[in-house]
Amino acid sequence: MNYVGCTIRGPLATQIRSYAGAAAAATQSTATSTSSPSISSTLILSRLPIITQDLTPFESQFYKYQSELWRRLMWTFPKWFYFKQGTMAELRYRQINKNPVSYNPKLPNWPKGKPDLKHLRDRRFRQYIRVPKTYREEDEIVEGQDQSEFKENEISRKIVPASRITEADKRNDLTSLERKLSRTLYLVVKDNGTDWKLPTFKEQSENLQPLHVLAEEGLYELGGKKINYFNVSKVPCHHNKNKEYFIKSHILSGTFEPQSNSIQYQWATKEELKELLPSEYYSDISHLLSDV
């Protein structure tokens, strides 16, 4: 039976046209998604803490108590070992370290209790020792005075630990990697008045790239190639409904230099990100951020 040239009318024709329209729309959607993918790679670039975490008030009190207890129970300082009797060093030591008052039963009362002396030390209290210095403090140096005799003994100079508060902290420079040394910092960017966000790079070419490669090339285009960093994994650690795949990375050295004048950036802690990022965006990624 030959149906060539026949015309289909009625409800069947309407149904066929609806199927054909749906198929065409699906084909067009598939072609569009193939030519222009909507996925993107988001980089969680962090700078790990450089120094130890700040102590809580309880931890400070605990370590102070342990230190005082250890010093209270320590042995008496053996001055006879370090300063030979009759030498100039021993004389200088005795000049700056006075012997404690010994117990005298003839005195009527002792406000702080009876002294318990052992090797010229009152064992009831912590022993404080002052050692003759071979260096001079900055406030003791007289301008124009010869310091050659002290420079010879620089090996015994006073050791002063560096401050935990840097110049970037004092200036409140949010673009510096030298701030908040005890905290984890994260890179956030903003372009042309948009909201702050983590660096996000969309797939633009027809040839799909691995997500970590897309993030790496995008970071170099955004902040220059003076960044030495590594990806924790090539596998994304998170994704959201906008098809953003998150890659965790750590910066090792270098600096972020925006390649466009319209780009603003900050290195922020988790608490600061809560103030910068949109609330919905932050709540979606907050579990990926470190509390330290």
Task: Kindly list the characteristics that best describe this protein.
Ribosomal_mL46_NUDIX, seven-stranded mixed sheet, Ribosomal_mL46, 292 residues, Ribosomal_mL46_N, alpha+beta, ribonucleoprotein
Beta content comes to 5-15%
Give average pLDDT, whole number. Answer: 80
Number of strands: 7
Report the end-to-end length measured between terminal Cα atoms. 80 Å
Shape: elongated
What string gives the helices and strands in order? HEHHHHHEEHEEEEHH
The gyration radius over C-alpha positions equals 36 Å
Instruction: List unreliable stretches of 5+ residues.
Output: 1-6, 22-27, 29-37
Q: Quick one: biggest sheet?
A: 7 strands, mixed
The number of helical runs is 9
Protein name: Large ribosomal subunit protein mL46
Organism: Candida metapsilosis
GO molecular function: structural constituent of ribosome
Keywords: Mitochondrion, Ribonucleoprotein, Ribosomal protein, Transit peptide
Walk me through the structure:
Mean pLDDT is 80; it is low at 1-6, 22-27 and 29-37. This protein starts with 10 loop residues before the first helix and ends in a 7-residue tail after the last helix. The longest helix is centred in the first third of the chain and has 25 residues, at 11-35. Strands 1, 2, 3, 4, 5, 6 and 7 form a seven-stranded mixed β-sheet that branches. It is built from nine helices and seven strands, in the order αβαααααββαββββαα. The chain is an alpha+beta fold and 292 residues long. The chain has helices at 11-35, 57-73, 79-82, 88-96, 148-151, 167-171, 211-223, 270-276, 279-285; strands at residues 40-47, 185-191, 200-202, 227-231, 238-239, 244-254, 263-268. The protein is elongated. InterPro entries: Ribosomal_mL46 (IPR040008), Ribosomal_mL46_N (IPR021757), Ribosomal_mL46_NUDIX (IPR033650). It comes from Candida metapsilosis.
